[in-house]
Design brief:
2 domains, about 5% strand, three-stranded antiparallel beta sheet, about 130 residues, mainly alpha
Amino acid sequence: MPEVKQGESEQEWLGRCIPYQLNENPDMEKDQAAAICYSMYEKSKKNEEVTMSIIDKIDRILTEDVDIENFIRRSLNTPKSQDAVWKMVKTKFKDDADRDEFDEIWDSFVDDDYLESAGGDKYKWSE
């Protein structure tokens, strides 16, 4: 089964996919092959949009001017492991990231078995 190539137009995709579908399924009607291919194209574009949205959010986080403490707090809006957040901090702050400082800030957000997010929500913690 072919896959939609990045940047491929709908017409280019349909021009590749429909003949493939008809060749693989000789009893299939052309309209049915077109519907399958169109659906695959739409799904591919939706996945591409979601991926770009995620990349944009990561880029905004990495280029935003925040201090390490606020960056760590914001990263806890969804539970992540301490090492995963450390990698994010290291990527954002590079040489300014100090593991001891990070661990101290991290510990200030840990309350026994809970993490507190930037919004004040507490999440059950298990590492």
